[in-house]
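A favour, since you know our structure tokens better than I do. Would you make up a two-line entry for one protein for me to read? Write everything out right here, beneath this request.
=====
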Amino acid sequence: MLTLLVPLAVAILISGVDDLIVDLFWGCARLKDRLRPSARMFPPGERQLASAPVQRIAILLPLWKEHEVIGKMLEHNLAAIRYPNYHIFAGCYPNDYETQAAVESAARRFPEVHLALCPHDGPTSKADCLNWTFQHLLLCEESIGRFDVVIVHDAEDIIHPEELRWINYYSARFDFIQTPVLPMPTPLRALTHGIYCDEFAEYHTRDMAVRPISGGFVPSCGVGTAYRRDILERLAQGSSNRIFEPGALTEDYVNGLRLFRMGAKQTFIQLYRAPGGAKDLVATREFFPPRFTAALRQRTRWVTGIVLQGWQQFGWKGKPGEVYWLWRDRKGLVANPLSLAANAVFVYGLATQLWIRVSPMASRLAAVTMLLQLLRLGVRMACCARIYGWIFALGVPLRAVYANALNCAATLNAIRIYAAARARGRPLKWLKTDHAYPTRTALLAHKRRLGEILASTGRLSPAEGARALASLPPQVRLGEYLVQSGRLTVEALYDALSFQQGLPRIHLEPSAVPREVARALPAHVARGWKVMPFGVADGALMVAGPEAPTLEASRALAGFTSLELKFHLITPQEFEALAAALL
């Protein structure tokens, strides 16, 4: 163990100094902005966002076996996005019937959604699916007009309501725009998902902000990435019309580097809070793998694509800043196993008092590396605390050790898979990540206000909405007031509420509801919470009511049935008619 200590300490020291360089760039940039404030330091205000010319935006979604999440994703984001001119193109495979059906169902309800069918069965790769989805976009342009900006997202993404407005603003100056990506908040006990929270909080606070100011390229994160249309056409001309490289496991990272070498203007929108309405950080939110095996599969793909394929395809050439960030992106090939080894040596040293038996030089070297690691943990905890709070940030040291084990396993797995594929002359396979979508309750913060939805659907003009809000009596909700004043019908109100809340709208006649089903909940409970059971399907109890369910209501009702509850919206008049006939 003693013979390994010095080489290991030197390797960790080199990596620590490398991280310190990025810290210094980051600190100097923040200090410079404070001493001499620039436009880069401040996010665009409401007036700047509103005055920017509105570009036509297309969102591409590559899909394979995403039927369980894509319907919820489309419904939520269409109800949340505050931007007037965008369309969503969902790429599906002919042999993925369930995902097709989910997209077609959404397309029937929302004219902004388009099904883009690949010409061959899947799965192939995310890049291949994106290429064919883009081709479908080109066909649609013949009838609906040309798009100015193209954004890539995934099936599990929670798109921030302000994201498209920010991208629209920055697209006047940049060809390639990457918005921040953050994992959803997670409990302390969820170690695997917590690793993603820690890493993305640090990377999208510090590293991504430093890359463009230190001469590096901005890689795409796979989601929340926007491309100006003209730069995509240049990319297509230089790659036989393949905008996304089909053989790459990390086509997003590849595109960031390709565009940098083409001279494209790149930017990363730093983590800012939205002006006006939503006060949370403007970032794409999503669930990452919660289990070790799923995270291992995803990280194996990242290491294989970014490090091994990237090394093979792009080598080490380029400007100094570019080469430095190639080193940063690839050093995990060595640093990941060494980090786990350092943890093992640290534990061994504590157990055996190893520091007593080493030379003074080795002892000082180990002390320096320890200080660098403590600084690293401090920076990560500060970044994590800014987003998830200090209580969650206190778990960073424990999760860092777990992350070292996971990253080491992913690195060794990637080397094994890559070496086997090269030896056999076979292409690498796309390792798909399983996706999940948050509960309805977790999404409510991003919903557009009722007045915005009514205005966007033509039910209410902006001027009428402003007058209604100005004259709204205390303790009266806007929808109720508009119905009472005759400016809106009950049906129109509940159609808008269905869209806003992500709850299906249904019409029920008392004769269509079996009495035994209606009494699946006690009568006083059904009346008290204003819900009417009307059916049972797929292990769920279907209930309808005039109010969107609160968390309190959901918990209270769950105590009276072992079935999952699925809520639907009906008008107050429909509920009273059902209650009078069945309860």
